[in-house]
Design goal:
- With about 325 residues, the chain is an alpha+beta fold.
- The strands form three sheets. A four-stranded antiparallel β-sheet has the order 3-4-5-6. A three-stranded antiparallel β-sheet has the order 7-8-9, with helices on one face.
- The relative contact order is 0.09.
- The N terminus is likely disordered.
Length: about 325
């Protein structure tokens, strides 16, 4: 075993034995002698989080993430440090950054806790620098093995150049048109079905207007069930409509603009939509992801899409031009 392996093994053994303070002292001395060793700094932050020294852990984790933005384990630990300080908006952003690049621990549960606790959105997107260097192998203190750092996610252009393949990446988030978006029209149809026959004294109108109201409720349900919006790391898959029904696969590299939109009815139903403008060859096309969630969630999604879209499009232009 290398000296570095001996060092990490000692820290790991202390950590697993519940002697976190001793592991922390050992790692702090290592960081002092090797300030550029991000593996030491990350391991120290894990110990500091265990000791509930949230602010000190945050300082070290931000240095790790600044050097390696795709290090999703560091983003996860940063979320824990911020959550410990009750900075829930920032913690939620850290967990979303973690989940954008990989799975870690209970990140999804913690993100949900932050979002349901009234966390305020934090301005900024998930833009990623172009030139990344991988870290040396990191030791995970709570596992009896060494684990390589998370790999930088290559762009679509990278994969086309190197492997001639175009994988979509992992599924990041899915949604559909919310059922409540169709409720106002259905309620209006029901009110007409009840009011018009009574006002006109024409009981025979109950049957056709009642059928119209039932159809409105059924349409709201079917439109919601038939729609699906899948956000992958590199591509958006859209399925909408009943008759006609359409399915689209929109690569982020082809997207030219993403717009957040709300109409009058969306304020009544507490929903928001995204308008996606993209290119197919030389043709300009657009797709509306109607009422796909609550306004706060869709505003975050709108901002988080900016980074991956710009990154993929910038890399693809190197191939096209």
């Amino acid at each position: 075993m290398t000296p570095e392996g001996d060092f990490f093994a000692q820290a790991r053994n202390l950590f697993q034995a519940g002697r976190t303070a001793e592991a922390t002292d050992l790692l702090e001395r290592a960081v002092e002698t090797r300030p550029n060793d991000l593996a030491c700094r990350y391991a120290l932050a894990v110990c500091l989080n265990e000791e509930k020294a949230w602010k000190r852990a945050e300082t070290h984790l931000r240095m790790v993430i600044e050097a390696e933005p795709h290090h999703y384990l560091a983003s996860y630990e940063l979320g824990k440090a911020l959550q410990g300080q009750r900075r829930l908006g920032e913690a939620a952003q850290a967990y979303r950054r973690c989940l954008l690049h990989g799975e870690a621990g209970d990140a999804r549960r913690r993100l949900k806790e932050c979002e349901t606790s009234g966390a305020q959105p934090v301005r900024g997107d998930l833009a990623v620098p172009e030139d990344l260097e991988r870290l040396a192998a990191l030791a995970v203190l709570d596992a009896d093995r060494y684990v390589p750092p998370p790999a930088s996610l290559p762009t679509l252009a990278d994969d086309l150049d190197e492997r001639g393949s175009a994988p979509v990446g992992d599924l990041v988030w899915s949604s559909r048109t919310q059922l409540r978006a169709g409720v106002p029209a259905a309620v209006f149809a029901t009110a007409l079905a009840l009011a018009i026959p009574a006002l006109l004294g024409r009981n025979w109108l109950y049957l056709p207007l009642g059928a119209y109201a039932v159809t409105a409720w059924a349409a709201a349900f079917l439109i919601s069930r038939a729609s699906r919006f899948d956000f992958y790391e590199r591509r958006l898959d859209v399925a909408q409509g009943i008759v006609p029904r359409s399915k689209q696969s929109i690569w982020y590299a082809s997207i030219t603009q993403v717009n957040y939109s709300r109409g009058l009815l969306s304020y009544l139903t507490h929903t928001a939509s995204l308008d996606i403008h993209y290119m197919v060859g030389s043709d300009h096309k657009s797709a509306t992801l109607a009422a796909l969630g609550n306004p706060a969630r869709i505003d975050r999604l709108y901002r988080e899409l900016q980074g991956p879209v710009v990154r993929e499009r910038r890399a693809m232009k190197k191939i096209l031009f």
